[in-house]
Automatic annotation (TrEMBL):
This is Transposase IS200-like domain-containing protein. One of its GO terms (molecular function) is transposase activity. GO terms for biological process: DNA replication initiation; DNA transposition; regulation of DNA replication. Signal peptide: none annotated. InterPro entries: DnaA_C, Transposase_17, Transposase_17_sf, Trp_repressor/repl_initiator. Residues 219-287 form the Chromosomal replication initiator DnaA C-terminal domain. Residues 9-123 form the Transposase IS200-like domain. Pfam families: Y1_Tnp.
Length: 335
């Protein structure tokens, strides 16, 4: 079976989880953590990526990684392969040092960065490794408190968000609260299933088009039926040769929803509507400017929900937005 594709969004922020195997921990000595962080810092410089938060446990790596152009896959492969080689030389073993591949989920930083950071700093507490977040050694919590210095860690983004969200609430007071149970469940799912995106509907709609290729249960016929009913026009008139403006708008909507959801190509829609593809394309461009509220993937609620197809990746949006598949195959070449 081929590997599932990864969702790559340049400039995106990801929650990345990498587990060790069952034979030995990832970190067993203090110098292991130091080695890993040196390799991470080198990788960040090479790829122009940033880390907004982290938590290292003996059996798992958790980090909030914001990439530039280089994919998460290339960054993680370079990092984990170098670390594994160093550890194998030290312990005199070979084989797989890590269990399977890393897990990664694209997050909406505006709505979820603080929640994720809160969760990461409480992982040792939730796992029984520390009594409170301040007692955990290997997280970014101390740097956020300015108790330690981590040159490769970016703290200003989260601190700025905290200031905007909580009206100037101090970081320490924010962290004193336990994570919300639903947030814990939400982020724990990242390492156990095919969750690919955590974000708002607005975040989904603003993703680059090639990162949100949809597939829907709906047929082209259902889309035509739904759009004509919602717009209050007769189906037969939309399929006729009439050039009335209201029908032109409806045809543009049908073409946009069908192509955006992966139900049909523009040429297929054009044949069904008895129109030229270029005419439909121009109508879509014109009416997306004039009536932007109609050209949103969630505007027509009567159309069947989006679902994954074949061997593609499931993209789940936690606030009820669409499931989708991504079409970007990650470049697996190590940095």
């Amino acid at each position: 079976m081929s590997r599932r594709q990864r969702l790559h969004v340049a400039g995106g922020t990801y929650y990345v989880v990498q587990h060790g195997n069952t034979h030995h921990p990832i970190f067993s000595q203090p110098e292991d953590y130091a080695l890993f962080e040196r390799l991470l810092a080198t990788g960040l410089r090479r790829t122009n990526a940033r880390v907004h938060g982290y938590c290292w446990t003996p059996q798992a790596i958790h980090l909030i990684l914001q990439i530039d152009e280089i994919s998460v896959g290339r960054i993680m492969q370079g990092l984990t392969s170098r670390y594994a080689r160093s550890m194998h030389r030290r312990i005199g073993e070979s084989g797989h040092f890590f269990r399977q591949r890393y897990k990664a989920v694209l997050i909406d930083p505006k709505h979820y960065l603080l929640k994720l950071l809160h969760y990461l700093h409480h992982i040792p507490v939730l796992g029984g490794l520390a009594e409170h977040s301040g007692a955990a050694e290997h997280t970014s919590h101390g740097t956020y408190l300015r108790q330690s210095a981590t040159p490769w860690l970016t703290t200003r983004t989260a601190l700025r968000l905290l200031e905007l969200k909580d009206g100037g609430t101090e970081y320490e007071a924010f962290m004193a609260r336990c994570p919300e149970p639903e947030d814990v469940v939400q982020f724990e799912r990242v390492g156990s299933n095919d969750l690919r995106v955590i974000g708002s509907t607005e975040f989904l709609e603003n993703l680059p088009r090639n990162s949100r290729t949809y597939r829907s249960k709906a047929s082209l016929d259902q889309i035509i039926h739904t759009v004509t009913c919602r717009m209050g026009v007769e189906r037969d008139l939309v399929l006729s040769n009439s050039r009335q403006r209201e029908f032109t708008l409806v045809r543009a909507l049908i073409a946009w929803y069908a192509t955006e959801r992966g139900v049909a190509t523009l040429s297929e829609v054009a044949r069904c509507l008895r129109r030229d593809p270029s005419t439909l394309s121009m109508a879509i461009s014109r009416y997306r400017t004039r009536r932007p509220e109609l050209f949103k993937i969630t505007a027509m609620h009567d159309i069947s929900p989006l679902v994954p197809i074949g061997g593609s990746v499931k993209v789940h949006y936690w606030d009820g937005a669409a499931e989708a598949r991504d079409g970007d195959d990650e470049d697996r070449q190590a940095i």
